[in-house]
Amino acid sequence: MNPLRHLRNRKLLAGLGLVAALLAVGFWPSAVPVDLAPAEKGTLRVTVDEEGETRVRERFLVSAPVAGRVLRIELEPGDPVRRGESVVATFLPAAPVPLDARSRAEAEAAVSAARAGLGGARAERERAQAALGLAESELARHRELAGQRIVSRQALEAKEAEARAAEEARRAAEFAVASAEHQLEMARARLLQAAGGAGAGQALTLRAPIDGVVFKRLRESESVVPAGEPLLEIGDPRQLEIVSDVLSTDAVKVRPGSLVLLEHWGGDHLLRARVRRVEPSGFMKVSALGVEEQRVNVVMDFEDPLEAWAALGDGYRVEVRIVVWEGDGVLKVPTSSLFRRGEDWAVFAVDDGRAELRAVTVGRRNGTEAEVRAGLLEGERVVLHPSDTLANGSRVTPRAS
């Protein structure tokens, strides 16, 4: 064989091989850049997320005890008042009207009923105070037993909830006493003014029934008002609660004592609260999209000290996350890695640079994370937001951050 010819054949074969290699490289599927996250164990919280609103737990509406002329009210919203000391309104009663026997008897009966109501309110206050003392004693005992690991955490939390409820009952009883005292004062004023007795034509002064601030001034200028006309709204801004209406399908998962996290309320830190009551009656509400929804009010109390949320006031907006389930040591993955494959859930796990289709069993989940009960091991990496072009066995490479 001619050596030159043999050399030319070898060069031709080498060139063809190089072209074939270049074509193979050109058509070889390239690795798909993907975002990865590990399957890891940790705490998983399942929450009901809604908007909420703060409100004063107990507010007092000061009204005119008798018909007459009310002088100009100088108090403005935000002004502090002291129970029994601050004058909130001054009246010039109308001329007394002679009472017949029946009207006089009714007025006297109203005073007697108000006096009896005050006595009942004071008795209820004493009962609430005794119940609070018992609840605090039980709580202290359970805390000691919990430190010795004799009682469970759930039992301790139940006693804490009972103590909070007893404290709220005592506060409500205090407010009821203040309200009953005000009702008795109004009943006496009506009887005195209508009977035309001593002092019937003199100016009457109304004093603050509770310690707090003025929320609303319903009457400002001097004017003639009938008996019972609302004048001022007073409340204690330190007695705030949160109310949020949630879907009835979510309300059945919420229990009194559940932890609540408050976000986006204007401060730079997270606030904590506890569910006090899930109201037993729902109502219909039309959503922003025009959909009729059955909603239920959930009432919550702040768990943090007053200093943490003192900037909040009545009617302020907050975002609430009510914890309905919480687990520690849960194997979890981001929900963005999950997708449907028929009736089952699946993920793409990455093994040796290739995507591997895995069927997984999903447990509880929230908006960002999901519990994996089977199909993955701790530490395995999964593809986030898998595209439709990704298939089992596809070569992948982590996307540069």
- Helical content class: 25-40%
N- to C-terminal distance: 61 Å
Shape: elongated
How many individual domains?
4
The biggest sheet, with number of strands, parallel, antiparallel or mixed sense and barrel status, is: 6 strands, antiparallel, barrel
Look at the helices and sheets and give the structural class.
alpha+beta
Estimated share of beta-strand residues: 35-45%
Rg computed from alpha carbons, rounded to a whole number of angstroms: 36 Å
Parts with pLDDT < 50 across at least 5 consecutive residues:
24-28
Average pLDDT: 83
Account of the 3D structure:
- This protein is α+β, with helices and mostly antiparallel strands.
- It has four domains: 32-42 and 328-398, conserved putative lor/sdh protein from methanococcus maripaludis s2 fold (Beta Barrel); 47-55 and 238-327, Elongation Factor Tu (Ef-tu), domain 3 (Beta Barrel), CATH 2.40.30; 62-93 and 203-237, OB fold (Dihydrolipoamide Acetyltransferase, E2P) (Beta Barrel), CATH 2.40.50.100; 96-200.
- The protein has five helices and 22 strands.
- The chain has helices spanning 3-27, 101-147, 153-195, 248-251, 306-309, and strands at 32-38, 40-56, 59-63, 68-70, 80-81, 87-93, 204-207, 212-217, 223-225, 230-235, 240-247, 259-263, 271-278, 283-286, 292-302, 317-334, 339-341, 344-351, 354-365, 369-374, 381-384, 396-398.
- The strands form four sheets. A six-stranded antiparallel β-barrel has the order 2-11-15-13-12-16.
- A hairpin with a 2-residue loop joins strand 17 and strand 18 (344-351).
- Helix 2 (101-147) runs antiparallel to helix 3 (153-195).
- The longest helix is centred in the N-terminal third of the chain and has 47 residues, at 101-147.
- It is elongated, with a radius of gyration of 36 Å.
- It starts with a helix and ends with a strand.
